[in-house]
Amino acid sequence: MAVTKLAVLGNPIAHSLSPVIHEAFARQAGLDIRYEKVLVPQGRFAETVQNLIDKGLLGFNITLPFKYDAFRFADEHSVAAQRSQAVNTISLVGGQIYGDNTDGRGLVRDLVINLGWPIENQKVLVLGAGGAVSAVIWDLLQGSPDRVDLHNRTLSKAIALADRQRDPRVKAVDRDHLDKGYDLIINGTSAGLSAETPDVPESIVAENTRCYDMMYATTQTTFNAWGLTNGAAAVSDGTGMLVEQAALSFELWFSVKAGTAGIIATLRSE
Ligand code: ATR
To answer: Cβ neighbours of residue 27 under 8 Å, at least 6 residues apart?
Structure first.
């Protein structure tokens, strides 16, 4: 069987778990892959990826800060990629460069399938209005929430992101107008990287509230610890989202289902 060569591109890249995750999928599916991490110099995304394509690589994951460069590099785009103007997965199909963004569907799969947390008819609050949130908001709306309030430290960015959705269910909400007791709160800020929690009132959490942090960590994330302290019913970090967005890339490349439960459990236990 021929080996399929794939890579994840980013800067920095050393920390990436993508090779471990994709190798686990490949073992399960009986496929032979070589999946490498590539550190792309700033400003050299297109030439780096073209070089790798010339060497026979057939698929790429793209991480920070190149998701917008990857969007521009692709010839064709999925709807999710178009909506976020960002690409995290490239697949070479008949010489065409196809760009997808699997982050949003990865989040939704983790919420609905793995955790059993519904989105349908739910009152959802999303914290943050940067690239991470912009990549998932459209897919969240496909899950038929009752509404999605967007709150960001810099309100103007939440307003701009909400306006771009052109959907009456999405509203930017400032701190004073946050509702009480959301069903689901998704933290899409990078505050946790500096062990901070977004400055939001405790009243957004009630006893039925589920808190999801798109960040992942080996210990409880700062945001989830805050949620539990304030009485949340359940919390989850983004390990499942990380694995599910990878599974969707794998499924795009190979047209076979990637089993995710085993690798999610492994990452959680490490
Ligand atoms: P990413 O690609 O991770 O989304 P980003 O586009 O830089 O990165 O966005 C970071 C998000 O986290 C922003 O919404 C940012 O809020 P601002 O727009 O006000 O900068 C949010 N963020 C970062 N640190 C934060 C903190 N300490 N408290 C609240 N929000 C924070």
So the answer is: none
